[in-house]
Structure formats: C-alpha cells, structure tokens
Amino acid sequence: MSFLLVTKHRDMAPFKSAIKKVDPNIDVEIWPDVKNPKRVQFAVAWRHPKNVFSQYPNLKVISSLGAGVDHLMQDETIPDDVKITRIVTPSLSDQMSDYVLTAVLNLFRNTKTYLNSRKKPNGPFTRS
Q1: Coil, strand or helix: which one is 75?
Q2: DSSP assignment, residue 67?
Q3: Cα 126 versus chain centre, distance
Q4: Which residues have CB under 8 Å from 67's CB, separation 6+?
Q5: What domains, with CATH codes, occur in the chain?
Q6: Global confidence as pTM
Q7: How much of the chain is helix, strand and coil, in % rounded to 5?
Q8: What is the pLDDT along the chain (128 residues), one digit of tens a residue?
Q9: CA 33, CA 38: separation in Å to the nearest integer?
C-alpha cells in the first residue's frame, strides 16, 4: 500500500518528510512521480488535475488537504466507492475565522484598490 500526495501548485516534499518522520515505513509518493499506481490506496489532494485518480485502480480513500471537499466532489471521474474525507485539526476553526475576518476587512477597507493604486506611478497612495 502507498500513500499519495496530489496537488498541482504546491511543494509536497515537506508533507512527505513529516509523514516519514512519524513512521518511516509508510510508502509515500508525490504525484506525478508514482512508481507503482496499483499500490496507491490512500490519497491526499488539493486542486488535483482532472481525471488523475483514474490511474489508481486500488484507491480507497481521498482526503482533502484543505478545509473543503468541493474540488473532490466536482470530479465526476472519482469512482463512487472511493471515500472522500477531509482533514480536521484543532486549529482549523481559528484558521478559517482568521481567513474570513481578513477577507471581510479587505473588502470593507478596499485593500485591492489601495494596492493597485500604489502600483501606478502617480496614484494617490504613492510616495513622492
């Protein structure tokens, strides 16, 4: 059995190291460099490439690396018998609260407009 880490835009090597530190006997692979696709039974994914899971005939569980599973539920190529889960940590509620608070403050304070105006040579918020 092997454990697969799948994402398009993130370095998964630190995750592999952390898992191996807990148990050096766990066979961890990082997509797309998978030695034996038939050995993969568990995957952790975030924003995975379309149809990537069809390469793993013995896949039993896919867990979302993020708080939500929408990206997995929208993938119609995942077989119905594959369980979809998410990782829940004690800090997840605090992290999500911080994210929402930051997003709301950015919206109310027009942070995007402010940052874009700083890029303009004669914008109202540029330093002279």
Answers
A1: coil
A2: S
A3: 36
A4: 86, 92, 95, 96
A5: 2-86 (3.40.50.720), 89-128 (no CATH)
A6: 0.71
A7: 35, 20, 45
A8: 899 999 998 899 999 999 999 999 999 999 999 999 999 999 999 989 988 999 999 999 999 988 788 889 889 889 899 999 987 778 878 888 999 999 999 999 988 888 888 777 776 665 65
A9: 13
